[in-house]
# Entry
Amino acid sequence: MQADCLHLYLDYVATNGLVLTPEQRSTLQISLEIVKRNYKFRRVDFWGKIMGLSADYFIVQGTELDELRDRKTLYSLNCLDWMLLSPATDEMIAKSMLVKGRFLGDPSHEYENTAAKKTDEETTDLDINFRIKEEERLTATVEQINREAAVVPRRAFVKTPYEEVHKNRSFEGLSVTEAGKLRSYLYFSKPIKLKRKPLLQKANLEESIDFLNCIDDDALKMFWSLQYERGSKLVILRNLVWLGFTFFHVPETAQYGSLYMGLGEKNMDYPFMM
# Structure
């Protein structure tokens, strides 16, 4: 969600329960301008909030030249002081998925993944497999949500011959009809392997635009909820795997964005929600 339009865009997702207090809104509006200047970002997006037991993590992402590869993530506990998160690795993500329970709100807290091993009938030993700090769990969770839920409208971004991804300045929004179809939205993460298209569809693809995977080609597309609001003047797309992730788009305009406000835990009950 673009920081420059934070007040306007938050109203689009407010009906889904994604809200900030007036104090948090005003503080973010000022502090994100400072973040943009200090880190020399071209654009700053308010990513969302992960709620902890003692404190909440406010997350922002800044982009530099390449919109997809040059993204940096920062977090804050008070919307004023921002700390840079290190890039998440696959190993970090795998470890964080084994940690159960809520975030505590303490970045220095260290989790221990322990498994009880029964040595005899009366005693047990604890086998410590690994340790991971909550700050590492935080960056791994943000990265995983980006990979599995972050989406953009088709044609909103273009890839140059130099393999750089930029915003499409000629993008004027999806039509009302197209905005209601899952095939009009792409995962905004670097695809490990592009889904193969049937020959009839392949003729309509553009290499500079269709370089991302489409939601409609995903095996988990049934866990996306798409609906019109405000008399078809607003489209809301919700992810049922990461509860709290909401994407919005105003058809026939360049206004779109996404926001996550949740517990930072994957919904493992989604197969039973069908």
User: Anything to note?
Assistant: The helical segments are 6-13, 22-38, 90-96, 134-148, 199-202. Confidence is low (pLDDT under 50) at residues 123-127.
